[in-house]
Amino acid sequence: MPETAADPHSTNSADYHDPTVVDKDPYDVDIADFNVANPHLFSSDTLWPWFKRLREEDPVHYCRNSMFGPYWSVTRYQDIMEVDTSHDIYSSEPSITVGDLQEDFKLSTFIAMDRPRHDEQRAVVNPAVRAEQLRIFEPIIRERTREVLDSLPIGEEFNWVEKVSIELTTRMLATLFDFPFEDRAKLTRWSDVTFAIPGMGVIDSDEQRRKELLECLAAFTELWNQRINEEPKGDFISLLAHGSATQEMDPLEYLGNILLLIVGGNDTTRNSMTASVLCQNLYPDQFRKLKANQKLIPNMVSETIRWQTPLAYMRRTAKEDTTLAGKEIKKGDKVLMWYVSGNRDESHFDNPDDYIIDRVNVRSHLSFGFGIHRCMGNRVGEMQLRILWEEILERFDSIEVVGEPERVPSSFIRGYAALPVVLHARK
Ligand code: HEM
């Protein structure tokens, strides 16, 4: 195929993670050269006008070349919904992120599988997060949330991400896995390592990632060997070890599913917790509304998850030649559903850039996806945030953000490395 600018399947002019993108005005750049998967747009929080221009002028956009090769960006709410629910046309295999898997370290996980294997494996672990199980977890989560909040300094600066968001989500994960509580920091590390880009702070190389993830596999294999010899229980490892669709998994499939459950339950909820504090500061009128009416907490939680969109996109791969919003997508093309853009689509949400805790249609946000892969742990995440805010309002007058948040350099996980805050006690 000839390599011309007019041919959307050709490659030229890469901007391999060009850091200067943060100083550019997207309206001065040729739209054909857009590469919105550049992590610098996310670490600098300058992504918004780039996606706005795509929604307005080229809502299904082809990036001819990037560090990850060519890919399509789907940026409008309705088009994202169409891709996410058309499982026969768009596959979740081989990967749900834009980068390709390492040939010699192919992790297999049910989020990146199609039917029927996906449905069989999801059904095995789903009982750990069902409503009846959540009722058992609720008092445990509340007790741990109280413990963490009561240990915080009043009137002194600290990093909310480290002391609260990471600590609480890691405790929850240790509960879901029945993982040794004293070793729970390892879960945080494995979560951070899984999607980190080498050379951008967390790991230096893919080799280091592989080494650390094999340590994760060794730890979880030991737990599998214990659980398989015990009566079946409700935790993730016991469910996988005793489940008929998962008993025969090979080691990399077991590791892949463990990492899915670790990352799924960790980064996402952690970054929503941090965003919830940031938002109460950016929008003080909304915080006043919340304090005046605590019944708004569940809606505020949903609005935070919409506003933050902790997973910026999910990738699909076209199974056949198809058409989307007038664009011809070829079999094998990578298609990124940018939830972060769909959640700011003016045609679905009024004033989408604003944080409005009593927004009426907020529960139709895209942050949990739609279709057969819709987030399995959405109720766990929402419950953790609801309890956190019930307990915060009980204790503190406000949580003051006293510096700029430090954002994670990733275009997949929209998150925070640090948020400096000072707590003010209730008068
Ligand atoms: C605010 C919190 C969370 C957000 C924003 C979130 C987001 C997502 C998204 C976008 C997907 C993919 C949807 C798709 O492809 O259509 C997903 C899938 C998944 N999530 Fe979550 N998640 C959150 C919390 C959790 C928690 C707490 C857990 C586990 C305890 C979890 C476990 C999973 C699993 C296992 C999948 C794969 C489902 C499948 O492929 O069938 N998530 N999540």
UniProtKB/TrEMBL annotation:
InterPro entries: Cyt_P450 (IPR001128), Cyt_P450_B (IPR002397), Cyt_P450_CS (IPR017972), Cyt_P450_sf (IPR036396). Keywords: Heme, Iron, Metal-binding, Monooxygenase, Oxidoreductase. It comes from the Bacteria. SUPFAM superfamilies: Cytochrome P450. Its cofactor is heme. Residues 1-21 are annotated as: Disordered. The keyword Nucleus does not apply. Belongs to the cytochrome P450 family. This is Cytochrome P450.
